[in-house]
Amino acid sequence: MSKRIRILVAVLFAILLAGGAVFYFSQDNEKTNKLTLYGNVDIREVEAAFNDNGFVTKLLVQEGDQVHKGALLALMDSQRYAASLAVAQAQAASQKQVLAALLAGTRPEQIVQAKAQMDALAAVYQNDAANYQRYAALVPSSAASRQQRDDAKAAYDNARQNYEAAKQAYILAVKGPRQEDIAAAQAAFDAAQAQARLAAVELADTKLYAPADGVIEERILEPGDMASPQTPVYTIALTNPLWVRAYVPETSLGRIIPGMAADITTDSYPGTVYHGWVGYLSPTAEFTPKNVETPDLRAQLVYQLRVYVCDAHNQLRLGMPATVTLDLTRTATAPRGPAACGDDAAG
Fold it and tell me: Is 274 in contact with 243 (CB distance < 8 Å)?
């Protein structure tokens, strides 16, 4: 082999060795810049129940049905509550008329009537006063008896009292109702209205609506069962927020920042990557002794991590094992909430 060939082979070997070293170190560096965690899909559940007592008349959804917030789920017998509402509305209407009469004041015809009654009794009063004076003047000369004088005095006193009563009635008719009476009638009307509104709410509570978007997980009651606020009718799995609960070793804790992007994969859908972000990092360790003294024990500390995930195709299920991959070279994005998914689909 010539010297030139030996030199060429040596140079080629050096190039191959350098390339292999670069590839090896780049692969090792990629591994150190990615953190892989294993956890399970977690969701919240809500137990939907009527806010009234009664027996169920109709259920409108089944297990597995997807419902949206405000969707009608079930009906309860409403006859009792409808009757209570009718009574409350009638009482409110009656009290409204009482208040309206007081606010309108005395009718002009009533004032005229009171005036006429007062004038008539005034004439009687004046006549009886004159009779009494005549009899009183005749008694000293024995032209009239004391009995006649006393009878005239009684008639005069009675006429005077009747006139004074009619006079006060006329004054009240002119002044109209007292403000205190109007205020009392207004308070009674307000109370009747409030009772009617309460009865309307109780009637509306005989219909059960979905409190949020989700999937019917369990149908607990059936038509004919007695329902109450303490007895759930359905269990609803809320599809938003949806997250993966995982645990981070203490040695990697300082490299994770809330808002950091994450990729999630599952065994059920190989090749499908779900996009998510770090939404919660527990401030306390779990499943470890309180007193940690050695470096070996400190390395075993783990912290709960919640990675929110977008699942536009509704593929993830409660408890499903999932793999979370965090690219530690990425900078954290702005904090995102569960509503950030929008129409995002799995990648």
Answer: no
pTM of the model: 0.62
Who contacts 103 (Cβ-Cβ below 8 Å, separation ≥6)? 182
Full set of structural domains in the chain with CATH: 33-44+238-340 (2.40.30.170), 85-201 (no CATH)
Report helix, strand or coil for 262. strand
pLDDT in tens, 191-248: 999 999 999 999 999 999 999 998 999 999 999 999 999 999 999 998 888 899 988 8
8-state DSSP, 222? -
338: closest CA among 241, 253, 204? 241
Task: Locate all alpha helices (DSSP H) within the chain, ordered by sequence.
Answer: 3-32, 79-104, 108-138, 146-175, 179-204, 295-298
CB-based burial, 261-298: b 16+ in 10 Å, e otherwise = bbbbbbeeeeeeebbbbbbebeeebeeeeeeeeeeeee
Please provide residue 268's backbone torsions phi and psi, each rounded to the nearest 5 degrees.
-70, -30
Question: In one letter, which amino acid is 22?
Answer: V
